């Protein structure tokens, strides 16, 4: 059995691999274009993308918009492959960033951290034969998928083009309560068939396939095979792409993944009100001891963040980590981050995934 391809609407990827969006500044045009060039789907994260611009503190919205346009254009210059944008619904300027993604011809917009119920008003329906932007929500339950698909079908007479179901082993912010994270009932293995069954009636009603993409803790080609056998048509992977040459993060950030152990991966309470998985370090240790870092907030980038009571600015902390200043920030990471052993090229990573998949299929 060879690795199958992945079709989302009018998009056709050689491999069923979506590189997960990683903010702030971890997955930009460098990583996304390299993944797309190898036959996967490369994704630029829009979260905090303007924080690397020199005028962010003076004009944060303009900085975000300029940076996103620039990164999409750089990716387009580097590859003819499939380029997507990951935009958190919780971002204050979510609508504006989605509009820019459509204007700049992003192939898909992947939307997490909230329910994108009215985003169909921003992303036009896919037009066959043209380079359209495909709408792909991220959900953490069949109930959430059902809610989105029912709302879109009733209000817009259309449905999303695919759906990502993300389990509790993912890195970053998690769509689960702390007590659900280790509960087998909420495992990705349980969620994938449920979401497949939830979207199937809508796919039938609209006469087209709606691929379900499994995400969260997927690390090997064998993992990929397991979830394809459960009904997923593809997988989304982020953590394993961090330790690639082309990843847009600093070497110090990448080395934090290589040097961490399984015990270093901890669940934290984010200032935005969600649990998250990260690599333990001295910065997070200080946070756990209620040591407050002065917060200078040029604007409220996340709808759910209250900077007046927040112990630190999460976007600033993540930006510092991206730059390698891990004494002033921390790295979000998936549950399998400790498996990263060395820095490889994206091409080498794909070759490994393919070999792992075929070996598991043969076994």
List the helices and strands and how they pair.
Blueprint: E1 6-8, E2 11-13, E3 17-19, H1 29-37, E4 41-45, H2 60-78, E5 82-88, H3 94-103, E6 108-112, E7 134-139, H4 142-156, E8 163-166, E9 172-173, H5 188-206, E10 212-215, H6 221-229, E11 234-237, H7 239-242, H8 251-259, E12 265-269, E13 275-279, H9 282-288, H10 314-323, H11 346-362
Parallel strand pairs: 3-11, 4-5, 5-6, 6-7, 7-8, 8-10, 10-11
Antiparallel strand pairs: 1-2, 9-13, 12-13
Helix pairs in contact: 1-2, 2-3, 4-5, 6-11
Helical content stands at: 25-40%
Approximate strand percentage: 15-25%
The largest β sheet comes out as: 8 strands, parallel
Arrangement of strands in the largest sheet? 3-11-10-8-7-6-5-4
Shape: globular
Distance between the termini: 11 Å
User: Which structural class is indicated by helix and strand composition?
Assistant: alpha/beta
């Amino acid at each position: 059995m060879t690795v199958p391809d992945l079709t989302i609407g009018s998009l056709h990827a050689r491999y069923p691999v979506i590189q997960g969006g990683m903010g702030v500044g971890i997955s930009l045009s460098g990583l996304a274009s390299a993944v797309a060039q190898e036959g996967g789907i490369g994704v630029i994260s829009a979260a905090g993308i303007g924080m690397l611009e020199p005028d962010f503190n003076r004009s944060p919205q303009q900085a975000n918009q300029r940076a996103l346009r620039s990164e999409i254009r750089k990716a387009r210059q580097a590859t003819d492959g499939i380029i997507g944008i990951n935009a958190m619904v919780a971002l204050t300027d979510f609508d504006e960033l989605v509009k820019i993604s459509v204007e700049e011809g992003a192939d898909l917009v992947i939307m997490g951290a909230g329910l994108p119920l009215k985003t169909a008003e921003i992303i036009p329906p896919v037009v066959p034969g043209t380079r359209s932007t495909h709408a792909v929500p991220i959900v953490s339950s069949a109930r959430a998928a059902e809610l989105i698909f029912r709302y879109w079908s009733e209000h817009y007479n259309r449905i999303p083009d695919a759906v990502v179901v993300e389990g509790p082993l993912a890195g970053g912010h998690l769509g689960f309560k702390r007590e659900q994270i280790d509960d087998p009932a909420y495992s990705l293995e349980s969620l994938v068939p449920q979401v497949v069954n939830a979207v199937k009636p809508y796919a039938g009603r609209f006469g087209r396939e709606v691929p379900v993409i499994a995400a969260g803790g997927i690390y090997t080609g064998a993992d990929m095979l397991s979830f394809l056998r459960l009904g997923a048509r593809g997988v989304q992977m982020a953590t394993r792409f961090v330790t690639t040459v082309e990843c847009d993060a600093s070497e110090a950030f990448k080395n934090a993944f290589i040097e961490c152990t399984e015990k270093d991966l901890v669940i934290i309470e984010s200032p935005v009100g969600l649990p998250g998985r990260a690599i333990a370090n001295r910065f997070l240790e200080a946070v756990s001891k209620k040591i407050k870092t002065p917060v200078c907030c040029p604007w409220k980038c996340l709808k759910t963040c209250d900077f007046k009571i927040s112990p630190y600015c999460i976007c600033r902390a993540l930006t510092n980590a991206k730059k390698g200043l891990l004494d002033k920030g921390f790295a979000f990471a998936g549950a399998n981050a400790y498996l990263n052993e060395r820095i490889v090229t994206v091409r080498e990573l794909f070759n490994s995934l393919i070999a792992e998949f075929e070996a598991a299929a043969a076994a």
